[in-house]
Amino acid sequence: MIVKTIKVKKVGVVIAACIAASLFIFLVVYGVAHAYSEECITVETEDQRQSFIKEMGWEVDSSFSETSDAKIPVEFGDVYEQYNEIQKQQGFDLEKYKGKEIKIYTYKVTNYPSERDNIYMNLMVFEGRLIGGDVSCNELDGFMQGLKKQ
Description:
Elements: H1 10-35, H2 46-55, E1 66-71, H3 78-89, E2 101-108, E3 119-126, E4 129-137, E5 144-145
Antiparallel strand pairs: 1-2, 2-3, 3-4, 4-5
């Protein structure tokens, strides 16, 4: 039988502990960042959607006024590229969902700070998770903005 003995110096133990601590901190930071990513905003139920809408600073009717199914195009034209820029500015990216079937919940906004009456919020949902959305006015001189009240 052969027995081999290895002497570990204190410096080696300190370096190994630092590497382990760094790896642990990285995993914790990555986990927290992932927990607050778009994929973790669950909006499966009306209560969850209403809670999210309130967090964004909006008041809406007690339930959605319309729901529709849509498909994110496989190829983005100019209009969809511009729409996706609005999504990217608020931390979403529809590129990941090209070709996917989604659900859109539309709510009438009741506290928009203007005289306009036709203000709606659209929440884009894929597999129960929020993937994008907008607040917009469907009048002739309308507008479109991100979800957070400004």
